[in-house]
Amino acid sequence: MKAFVIMSMVYLLVGSALGVILAIEPPSPQLRFGHVHFNLLGFMAMMIFGVGYFILPRFSGRVLRWPKLVGVHFWSSNLSLLGMVLLYGIWTPGWLASICIQTLSGALFLANVGLSVLWPEEREVPSTRAPERVLLGPTTKVAEILEKYPQVRQVLVDQGVKALSDPGHVEHVKKLGVTFAMMARRHGLDEAKLLETVASSIGAEVELAPAGPGRIEGPIGKDSVIGDVIKAYPHTEAVFRKFYGEGCFSCPGQAFETIAQSALMHNVDLGEILSELNKAAKSS
């Protein structure tokens, strides 16, 4: 998506340079054609494509239906534009083929964005509510399970988390975003056994994270909503600024957009940003 915006700037420079040449040299049909199309299909269209892919689905509370086709659109639109300009007046069949590819690439953009915005029932933004099939893992927040299954509090007390004997302590756990992994470490409990015990008490399934350096530990996961994360852990704001820039904080999308969605939109490695966010959360 950023690539479209970058290329639009390139085409603006090239189109402007051709305009200067046309003002100095005798008019050339090919240069005039290149000047017009680099500014229209290059600068203006590429800017619309880049901004459209980024803004329209987010403002509609949707995800892009076919994100992998963005790359296909990028290359087809750029290569066909170059073909149109370079082959104009030189090789008509190739020029006409470039025009057809350029038209199809524009239709690809309209279909991808249009269906994402106007036909959303298959691609709703992931809900923050717990699904019917409950999965428990090391990064599952304890407060979320306690809210839906109050009986788990006594199970945790029996396992050794005596502080939960005080109902008021649940609010403290919720505020800190304590996960089962964090609780197990804090109270010297076996993580796998704790998860299995809690899961069996509510009919849930255990989904253990893989061991090793690739594991992301902390209260913030890929389905966490940006606005909720910043509100609960103010220090994470610096991380979002680092990866997404200042625009993230004026965008209404942060009220419902998840970390995974935003990472996709900004071409950011999901594991990397989650790791830094959870480090910042610990210091909040």
Question: Keyphrases for this structure?
Answer:
SP0561-like; 284 residues; mainly alpha
The number of strands is 2
Number of domains: 3
Fraction of residues in H or I helices: 55-70%
Strand order of the largest sheet: 1-2
**N-to-C SSE series?**
HHHHEHHHHHEHHHH
Distance between the termini: 32 Å
Q: What is the CA-atom radius of gyration, in angstroms? A: 26 Å
Largest sheet: 2 strands, parallel
Task: Report what the structure shows.
There is one protein chain. The protein is an all-alpha fold. It folds into three domains: 117 residues; 72 residues, SP0561-like; 58 residues, no CATH class. Helix content is 63%, strand content 1%. The chain contains 13 helices and two strands; from the N terminus they run H-H-H-H-E-H-H-H-H-H-E-H-H-H-H. A two-stranded parallel sheet has the order 1-2. Helix 2 runs antiparallel to helix 3, helix 5 crosses helix 7 and helix 6 packs antiparallel against helix 9. The chain is elongated, with a radius of gyration of 26 Å. The two termini are 32 Å apart.
In short:
This protein has 284 residues and is an all-alpha fold.
Give the topology, please:
Elements: H1 2-24, H2 29-59, H3 69-87, H4 92-118, E1 135-136, H5 142-148, H6 152-159, H7 169-176, H8 180-186, H9 191-202, E2 205-206, H10 226-232, H11 236-244, H12 259-265, H13 270-283
Parallel strand pairs: 1-2
Helix pairs in contact: 1-2, 2-3, 2-4, 3-4, 5-7, 6-9, 11-13
